Amino acid sequence: MLRSFLDYYRATILRQTEGLTAEQLATPLPPATMTLGGILKHLSWVENWWWVQVLQDGPELDWVGDGFADDPDWEWHSAKDDDWQLLVSRYQASIAVADEALDRVLASPEGLDTLARRARHGRHASVRWILVHLIEEYARHAGHADLIREAVDGATDL
Question: Gene3D superfamilies recorded for this chain (predicted)?
């Protein structure tokens, strides 16, 4: 059930960005600076952060480079320079890697109770906690995406 909710929100975010121009993907809903392209790039990074870096103590995404060294909101700000196909391909690749990690963990005896290798705020999160956290993260950004998409082109039934 947790995985189904996560997959639902993953698809929702992708639907909210479909068919838009680069300019529309980079359009914020003032006074906020958040954009649909930024949401997509941020969630690509978030997938890697939790499923690769935290759960497995793995590496940063190769396309991040030194981005965060200069700007802690790098993924949000740099998305304006990326076209939809690039954002989507990176998003789908991050999800594929995340799903592989989740499949491996769920096949283990510990399953949802498996603890992350990397501590976050002094604690090692369980896979169950990570799933619930990501559902919350996606739900929040799906709400943002609804508002931004409506402001960009009037779409309300995606």
Answer: dinb family like domain (1.20.120.450)
